[in-house]
């Protein structure tokens, strides 16, 4: 992959709300080069659990161990996470060896409930991160906002801390705009907390909502992207310290039939450097099996802290900047529902590796993929 280089400073990208701007600095953009990939078979099981729905991944470099979380809402087995060894030899993925599986526990010390039978006690796991400073884990749940004639579930999203066995250690204090409401205010169902990442010193936790809050405007469509927020939490106090606006891309493909379901949102993030995140935007449209996955380098340095902004509409503020690093459509291979990424071990040439994992939604029509890229700075 070639490096992308912006030769001029672009003053600002202007959006539909003329007071929103996004400044892009004149700096080289790193690139990603695919070096290897494998698939985990749909029939894969481990210790009597169904391996699937892998929606988050992280790497413990000291122990050369990966953590992977499943988004099973206790419908196949209890909500859980795995540890695994991923064999990468001479820049080739040779396989994955699962080491353990642990049940996610709630504050009462019990497993989360089955979404179909006891939805108010269930969870919707999305991402997982390991903290080597405390030897603990943090994971996200999207919660739920379901309001129908025969069912009403309002369950707040959450960032939860646990030990390495899955026992509950606490959670962050949610800002008001992340709490589910019956009226169209706050998060959308299935569009809340997705990615998690620590900063370099593990003092801050970053997370994101997948789609816009109701008050921040419309969801992405094929002509225009929506506005989402990144959230920064203090890892010690567990309180929200900052929020930043981010402009999504439009939905990549027209759904077929026209008017059918389509979505574009941020499915994963990874800390890259001071004020910088790697951001995965995932677009899916009915009628196309593959997803369009774009990886951006996002910079929060000049972004306005919108923590006290009740809406991003009609505001004078600066959004996080973004530069495209990779559109996986350009790889010429099938790419499924990418939901997790992490830095892995250094490659033989000294460059960092970056691993992506896809969520097959427990469907035999989808694939669980692990892809390894070389990061070229």
Automatic annotation (TrEMBL):
Which positions carry the signal peptide feature in this UniProt record?
A: 1-21
Q: Which domain of life is it from?
A: Bacteria
Phytase-like domain boundaries: 49-362
Keyword annotations for this protein, in alphabetical order, are: Signal
Q: Which Pfam families match?
A: Phytase-like
- Classification via PROSITE patterns: PROKAR_LIPOPROTEIN (PS51257)
Any stretches that span the bilayer, and where are they?
none
Is Signal one of the keywords?
Answer: yes
* Claim: Signal is one of the keywords in the record: yes
Name of the protein: Esterase-like activity of phytase family protein
Q: Which organism is it from?
A: Flavobacterium yafengii
């Amino acid at each position: 992959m070639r490096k992308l280089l912006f030769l001029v400073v672009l003053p600002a990208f202007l959006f539909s709300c003329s007071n929103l701007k996004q400044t892009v600095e004149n700096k080289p953009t790193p690139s990603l080069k695919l070096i290897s990939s494998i698939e985990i078979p749909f029939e894969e099981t481990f210790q009597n659990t169904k391996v699937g729905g892998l929606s988050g991944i992280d790497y413990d470099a000291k122990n050369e161990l990966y953590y992977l979380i499943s988004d099973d809402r206790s419908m196949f087995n209890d909500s859980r996470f795995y540890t695994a060894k991923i064999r990468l030899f001479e820049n080739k993925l040779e396989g994955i060896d699962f080491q353990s599986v642990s049940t996610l526990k709630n504050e009462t010390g019990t497993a989360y409930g089955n979404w179909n039978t006891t939805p108010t006690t269930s969870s919707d796991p999305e991402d997982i991160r390991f903290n080597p400073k405390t030897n603990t884990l943090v994971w996200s749940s999207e919660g739920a906002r379901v309001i129908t004639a025969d069912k009403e579930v309002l369950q707040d999203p959450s960032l939860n801390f646990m030990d390495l066995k899955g026992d509950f250690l606490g959670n962050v204090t949610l800002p008001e705009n992340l709490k589910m409401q019956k009226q169209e205010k706050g998060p959308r169902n299935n569009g809340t907390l997705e990615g998690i990442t620590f900063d370099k010193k593990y003092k801050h936790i970053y997370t994101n909502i997948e789609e816009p809050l109701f008050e921040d405007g419309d969801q992405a469509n094929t002509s225009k992207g929506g506005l989402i927020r990144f959230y920064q939490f203090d890892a010690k106090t567990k309180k929200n310290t900052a929020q930043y606006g981010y402009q999504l891309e439009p939905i990549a493909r027209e759904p077929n039939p026209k008017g059918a379901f389509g979505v574009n949102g941020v499915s994963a993030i990874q800390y890259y450097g001071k004020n910088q995140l790697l951001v995965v935007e995932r677009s899916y449209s009915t009628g196309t099996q593959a997803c369009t996955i774009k990886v951006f380098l996002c910079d929060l340095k000049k972004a306005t802290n919108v923590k006290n902004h009740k809406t991003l509409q009609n505001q004078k503020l600066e959004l996080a900047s973004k530069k495209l690093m990779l559109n996986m459509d350009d790889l010429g291979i099938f790419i499924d529902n990418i939901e997790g990424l992490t830095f892995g071990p250094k490659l033989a040439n000294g460059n960092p590796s970056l691993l992506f994992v896809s969520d097959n939604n427990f469907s035999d029509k989808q694939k669980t993929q692990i892809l390894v890229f070389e990061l070229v700075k």
